[in-house]
Structure formats: structure tokens, C-alpha cells
Amino acid sequence: MKYTKHLLLGGIFATFLGIFLYKQNNDIEVSTHEFYHEKIPKGFDNYKILQISDLHSKNFGRHNKKLLDIIDALSPNIIVVTGDIYYSYKDK
């Protein structure tokens, strides 16, 4: 009985850990930050910079629709890619 209980608890823990790790590795996180400085020209008021980082060859739905829908909804003025897009070790 004790052994079965430990197996059950271990299985539940492993399941939740697997779900957590999958979501952490495959969800899209959106963070917003506002920056003010007196030297920034007024023409940049409400200027939106979208930074994309560390995609590592991920797919977010067919043709990355989930990612593109989020980008479209944010309506950025510029998009900068600062992290890995392609993960070369995946294909080796």
C-alpha cells in the first residue's frame, strides 16, 4: 500500500512537472515597459518597439498564427529580433 501511494504521488508530480516545463518552453510571454526621457523627441510618443527573442525554431500553431496574431494585436512600429530564432542542434 505504501509503495503504491508513493508511485501515485510520484506519477502526479511527474505529470505536473511535465506540463509546467512544456508550458514554460512553448508559451508566448508578453511584457510591456514604458520608457520616458526628456531627450526622446515628442515624435516618439506612443512609439511601440516589439522585441522578439529566443524562439529556437518553435512553431506556434499553423504558420505561427498564434505568434502573428499577438504581434498584429500589439501593432508595433518596429520589430527587433535579439535572440535565437533557429536552433541548429535540433536538426543534427
Please describe the topology of this protein.
Blueprint: H1 2-26, E1 49-52, H2 65-74, E2 78-81
Parallel strand pairs: 1-2
Structural commentary:
- The protein is mainly alpha-helical and 92 residues long.
- Strand 1, helix 2 and strand 2 form a beta-alpha-beta unit.
- The model has no long low-confidence stretch (mean pLDDT 82).
- It has two helices and two strands; from the N terminus they run H-E-H-E.
- The longest helix has 25 residues.
- A two-stranded parallel ribbon has the order 1-2.
Instruction: Choose one word for the global shape.
Output: elongated
Integer-rounded radius of gyration: 20 Å
Proportion of β residues? 5-15%
How many angstroms does the end-to-end distance come to? 45 Å
Number of alpha- plus pi-helical segments: 2
Low-confidence sequence ranges: none
For the biggest β-sheet, the strand order reads 1-2
What is the count of β-strands? Answer: 2
H/E element string? HEHE
Give me the secondary-structure category.
mainly alpha
Helix content bin: 25-40%
Question: Mean pLDDT, nearest integer?
Answer: 82
Largest sheet: 2 strands, parallel
